[in-house]
Amino acid sequence: MVKEMLTGNYAAAWGARLADVDYVPAFPITPQSEIIEVLSTWINGGNMDAIFTNMDSEHSMITAAGTASAAGTRVFSATSSQGLLYGFEMLYNIAGWRVPLVLINVSRAVSAPITLEPDHNDVLSARDTGIIQIHAETCQEILDTILMAYKISENEKVLLPVMINMDGFYLSFTREPVLIPDKSEVKGFLPEYNPKHAFLKASEPMAQGVAVLGGSAYSYFKYQQHLASLNALEVYNEVASEFEGVFGRSYSSIEAFMMEDAEYVLIMSNSFTVKGKAAVKGFRENGIKAGLLRLRLIRPFPDAELRRLLSNIKAAAVIDQNISPGSGGILFKDVSAALYHDAHRPEVLLSFIGGLGGKDISQVEFKHIIDMMKKSLDTGVIPGTEILYTENDMQQMNKLLKIAGKTTD
Amino acid sequence: MVESDIIKRVRFHGRGGQGMKTASRIVGTAAFMEGYYAQDFPVYGAERRGAPIMAFTRMSDSPILERGIITRPDINIIADETLLSDNAANVLQGTENETVTMVNTHYSPSHVKEAFDVNGEVTTVDITETVLKIINKPALSSVAAACACKLTGMISKNTLEKAVIRELTDIHLKRESISKNVEAALICFDNTPDITTSGIKTSEGYNGNRIVKMEYANPRVGTPSVYAMGNTIDKKTGNWRLYKPVIDYEECSMCRACFVHCPHSCISIDESGFPQIDYENCKGCFTCMDECPKGAVSREREVRAW
């Protein structure tokens, strides 16, 4: 075991290397390219016994990943944003084929307007595909989650692909200390892939992803995917506790931060959570009983765990780093649905949109959220979804609008 | 962060190709080797040699609850003095009374402080002179890192040496070049004064900022389109240039080859038919020099006196 300064991208490459993957179909896109560059260097240099294929597009890449998995190989791939969307129809297909594999998404906000910085509309657009989703906060977590993900994905009760999300720039290009476990240690936790499920072999031809008409067969197979995903809740917890036993690092489906006696709770995901944690510490120093929950397992959605953690809390606020135009925050809907029937749910549940396209979420924005929770508790009035946008942001925007010839004042 | 935590935030300013990303990595690795929590990363804007770039390192004795761009640096390293007069590069952003700013120049700290009205302590070290003497080219990564390491007060000379070797080995530099880098770094470590910063108070505060309500704007305003010509007034790409093309009008035959071939439309034709270069935006690519049939375009070292 060694500890090194690694970027999130490099940590992802290490995860794939330690998981002893057989096949890496790839297509480059900023900010993901470093992952596949590192893997191709390692494979070319004989540090990794795997086959690397540069594909013509993400659509082909995801197809190749799914079909290789169907032939019984352990597959790893990575993409981002527009690339994920370009391969989109194949995401539903590989989930439908029930093939285990791990796909990294390095979050980057989706065009138009085009940018390189992160938010989660790319990865959350895939929330209904049937693919398991786990969202990471640190570079260590990316490496560790890849090892856990194969174990979840390849479990006979699940057999669904797993997508792991990391934020572009904030993780992908940021180095921090990462423990790289020994290969032998990983081997004990994640043995060689030995598929028992029906897999393609030259000697045993089969058809996969067959045509079904009339609806009853379609409904049957589709609902099987749902049940498999629900099984992943339990499998996730088993794998997480085994991982903790071997490696000593604990990853629950929802991370609880300063939740003891918390009255006001922020609900966030991914790397910006660290800004929320800093804000919570600041609030605590000023006598405000704040806490934070980080949603890590996004699909399947851990409803029961969320209810338990929010039981008898005064107020909570979801900060969605995404937006479903015409509806609001995507995760807010999952959180509200999980809580609706619970008698001990928070009295107030607010919805905020923040950090779109990598915009900072500043301390003044967190303070505003706490103030709004208090105000709603006092008045009983619950406002609609609000965007976290400051006077400074607006001044900067007005300046740009003027330069673009859109305003004259 | 609670008050007892030590955290130092280092911001590097330089130009693409000067080694600021590597500098931030050397400092990150050095802090990590000293047993601190560390974090380093670059921002990529225009990925081109000569364009202003930034890189960052954070180090702390407890887990770092921050990510992203450092807007209020404890230590601000300006490895290219010409960036001081470039408003778009904004190299003094967020410098406060507790900030130590290091400028790579032969000018005195008091001269820089006065000329640019810099908040906090200023120190100057001519790291370019050192590298030109020892490494024989303007590679600033190791020496900029050395100044930063010294100013943090958290990193020993011995650790700096190990970190330089580690990072330069990672980018496949030859052994001879690495040892020259180490030599230059150790000299600059010694040449950097021992100024300790008390550190910026960690809370960014609210700075009078507040949440505003966003209203629907008419589509001419509220859609991502641009109507104005010359809409890059805040991004003068002329500051990417290390050399400038100069036209010898005695030789120029007014053939317009430079005007036609300039990939950035930075050459216009004046009333008398001669080409004129827009130096505010010319990136110094020298396509004009290559295309000129008369050899009337020459290359001049950019001098920015201030």
Descriptive keywords:
heterodimer, A: 409 residues, alpha/beta, Rossmann fold, 2 domains, 6-stranded mixed β-sheet, 5-stranded mixed β-sheet, 14 helices, 15 strands, 42% helix, 18% strand, globular, B: 306 residues, Pyruvate-ferredoxin Oxidoreductase, domain 3, Alpha-Beta Plaits, two-stranded antiparallel ribbon, 9 helices, 10 strands
Task: Describe, in plain words, how this protein is organized in 3D.
The complex is a heterodimer of chains A (409) and B (306). With 409 residues, chain A is α/β, with parallel strands linked by helices. Chain A has two domains: 2-247, Thiamin diphosphate (ThDP)-binding fold, Pyr/PP domains (Rossmann fold), CATH 3.40.50.970; 254-395, Rossmann fold (3-Layer(aba) Sandwich). Chain A is 42% helix and 18% strand. Chain A has helices spanning 8-18, 33-44, 58-70, 81-86, 88-96, 121-124, 139-153, 183-189, 216-247, 273-285, 303-310, 330-339, 363-379, 391-403, and strands spanning 2-7, 23-26, 51-54, 76-79, 102-107, 132-135, 162-167, 175-180, 254-257, 264-268, 290-295, 297-299, 315-320, 348-353, 386-387. Chain A is globular. The model of chain B has no long low-confidence stretch (mean pLDDT 90). Chain B has two domains: 7-191, 3-Layer(aba) Sandwich (Pyruvate-ferredoxin Oxidoreductase, domain 3), CATH 3.40.920.10; 237-301, 2-Layer Sandwich (Alpha-Beta Plaits), CATH 3.30.70. The longest helix of chain B has 17 residues, at 175-191. Chain B has helices at residues 20-33, 109-116, 127-134, 141-152, 157-170, 175-191, 219-222, 257-261, 287-291; strands spanning 7-15, 37-43, 52-60, 75-78, 100-103, 121-124, 243-247, 267-269, 275-277, 297-301. In chain B, helix 1 (20-33) crosses helix 5. Chain B has 306 residues and is an alpha/beta fold. Chain B has a six-stranded mixed sheet. Chains A and B meet through strand 8, helix 10, helix 13, strand 15 and helix 14 of A and helix 1 and strand 2 of B.
